[in-house]
Design goal:
It comes from Ignavibacterium album (strain DSM 19864 / JCM 16511 / NBRC 101810 / Mat9-16). The protein has 466 residues and is an alpha+beta fold. Among the domains are: 2-62, no CATH class; 65-128; 246-416, Roll (C8orf32 fold). It is built from 14 helices and 16 strands. A hairpin with a 2-residue loop joins strand 14 (441-444) and strand 15. Helix 1 (13-20) runs antiparallel to helix 2 (24-37), helix 2 (24-37) packs antiparallel against helix 3 and helix 12 crosses helix 13.
Length: 466
């Protein structure tokens, strides 16, 4: 369990103050000194060592200089200067950190500027021309067909698609010494969902492996390889799975009262630090969004609409470096799929609507990527999917516009039914991804292998019924 959690601070105020001041080198040295000289518990040593590693991960995420940002920005603002950078920093459009006295910008800050800042976004469209996202075009065409088929057939599950997935992780040569064993956990689809069926392992490049049982909410397939000098180490699996569109025509007046004494209700409406916390910001925003509304679906709809309208998608930092993801989303006013999802879940839970995490991959034609979404519980309907990142479909029809508030397409591959839960078999060292699990995890006896030591690749073959 230790390898899954991340705390916003250590137990040591002197370390925390140095980190807060951006004095990463001094903080790391102080951590080394404490581990070496103090009689610490194992948990305290683990926490300090992870904090040191987290600082290194932040350095990796914040690796761009002002010159790097200006070079990109000048494609659209030829006369941009550092005063423009300061303006964008002040309005929250450019994310940066002062580390050891020097300003470093987030690796994706330049491209994010033209997603987050409305004026910059218009300027980019002026230069590049407006082009609707191909995924949006696909969904605008696909969603009405799903709704029509479900209504006509009076079936909740429609339009099945069978996917053949070829997933490969490649560890770079000499990432570990010759002859050392690399332990690898790759994502494996979860069972127990009507909309995800017939999961088959078709191939794996190892004679020995372990598939985690389905009671592991972040499900894995585990195997090992021996590293060879100057050679990449390759882990490969081939899977087949059939997924369905799930359609729920939700009538708000048909939603029944919750049993607030049930374990389900108590569990999934509670805080869960560090990422689901009912802070003053959450409480104040909730009051602004929800007002006097009492119906659970209509409350969720107000939250879904507000986030879709006010929180633009932007490339995200590694989650393991963020102290409180939902609070980060409110503060920065942008986020990727998981960041927006955790904000939605936090606001739902605060308003007494059970909400739980779900994630895996999006396998849409032309748009294959890691992806996060969630489910909310509506009494009388059960758990229904919500994709806050996809948000509102561009349509005048209400059921199409709010399709992803209660329904979902078949291109969502479910790997996880929770976040920050242990993987099986247990990992010795801290995970690269302490919240989600989609790419995989790797380690050897000398430590964790972070994302900069390996690459991942997903190939998808679509086998749709004729």
């Amino acid at each position: 369990m230790l390898s899954t959690f991340i705390l916003s601070q250590t137990k040591f105020d002197d370390v925390n103050e140095l980190v807060k001041a951006g004095e990463f080198t001094k903080a790391s040295k102080l951590i080394d000194e404490k581990v070496k000289t103090m009689n610490l518990l194992h948990e305290e040593i683990f926490q300090l060592q992870f904090e040191k590693e987290r600082l290194e991960r932040i350095r990796k995420d914040f690796n761009k200089t002002a010159d790097d940002i200006l070079k990109y920005a000048r494609k659209y603002y030829p006369n941009a200067t550092e005063s423009d950078l300061r303006k964008w920093e002040d309005d929250g459009s450019l994310e940066y950190k002062i580390i050891d006295g020097k300003k470093w910008y987030f690796a994706r800050a330049a491209s994010n500027l033209f997603r987050i800042n409305k004026e910059a976004k218009k300027q980019k469209e002026l230069i590049d021309g407006f082009k609707k996202d191909p995924l949006d075009v696909f969904l605008e065409s696909y969603t009405p067909k799903v709704l029509d088929e479900s209504a006509n057939a009076q079936e909740k599950l429609v339009k099945p698609v069978t996917f053949r997935l070829n997933y490969t992780v490649t560890v770079e040569p000499n990432a570990v010494p010759n002859g050392e064993v690399i332990r690898c956990w790759l994502p494996f689809p979860r069972e127990g969902h009507e909309r995800q069926q017939n999961i088959k392992l078709l191939g794996i490049n190892s004679d020995e492996y372990v598939i985690a049982s389905n009671d592991n909410l972040q499900r894995t397939i585990y195997f090992e390889k021996v590293a060879q000098k100057d050679q990449p180490t390759v882990f490969n699996i081939v899977l087949e799975v059939t997924n369905y569109s799930e359609v729920n025509f939700i009538e708000p007046t048909q939603i029944k009262p919750y049993n607030k004494n049930s374990g389900l209700y108590k569990t999934f409406t509670s805080e869960r630090a560090p990422h689901i916390v009912f802070t003053d910001k959450i409480k104040n925003l909730s009051k602004e969004i929800v007002g006097e509304e009492k119906n659970p679906y209509l409350i969720a709809k107000k939250i879904f609409t507000w986030i879709s309208t006010n929180i633009p998608w932007a490339g995200a930092r590694e989650y393991s470096t963020i102290e409180n993801i939902s609070e980060y989303c409110l503060t920065r006013k942008h986020g990727d799929c998981g960041i927006k999802t955790l904000l939605f879940m936090t606001l739902c839970r605060y308003n007494g609507i059970p909400a739980k995490w779900q994630s895996g991959w999006m396998l849409h034609p032309g748009e294959v990527n890691l992806h996060d979404w969630c489910e909310i519980y509506l009494e009388g309907y059960g758990w229904v999917p919500v994709d806050q990142s996809f948000g509102m479909v561009d349509s005048e029809k209400e059921d199409e516009k709010y399709f992803f508030l209660g329904s979902i397409d078949p291109y969502h591959l479910i790997i996880n039914d929770d976040y920050s839960t242990p993987i099986f078999p247990a990992k010795i060292f801290p995970r690269s991804e302490t919240v989600d699990f989609q790419r995989g995890e790797l380690e050897w006896r000398g430590g964790n292998l972070y994302f900069d030591k390996w690459d991942y690749h997903m190939e998808v073959e679509y086998i749709e019924p004729k």
